[in-house]
Design goal:
Elements (H helix, E strand, L loop, with lengths): L10 E3 L6 E3 L4 E5 L5 E3 L8 E5 L8 H12 L5 H12 L1
Antiparallel strand pairs: 1-2, 3-4, 3-5
Helix pairs in contact: 1-2
């Protein structure tokens, strides 16, 4: 079995600013099959997921809602997105 590269870090793109950051430094947001939105601290929840970085500009309510809606697709309530992400990061 080959050894895993110690310098390897998974990278993900932020849904808001579209910059690439290490996966562990980002917050995962998931849309479940029933359409509800939740923050996934484990990174293992089923459903369509996207990542948001910790920059202040990416946590701005309007930009955050637009970026997550674009990434997760479908009609999503902006209030639901904002409530879930701000509650999880507080």
């Amino acid at each position: 079995m080959p050894k895993r590269r110690p310098e390897h870090q998974p990278l993900r793109t932020c849904a808001v600013c579209r910059e690439v950051h290490p996966k562990r430094a980002m917050t995962r947001v998931v849309r479940l099959a029933d359409g509800s939105i939740l923050v996934d601290p484990t990174g293992k929840a089923p459903g369509r997921g996207t990542y948001v970085c910790e920059q202040a500009a990416c946590r701005e309510p309007k930009a955050l809602a637009e970026g997550i809606q674009r990434a997760l697709g479908g009609p999503l309530a902006a209030e639901q997105i904002l409530a879930e992400v701000t509650n999880a990061s507080a």
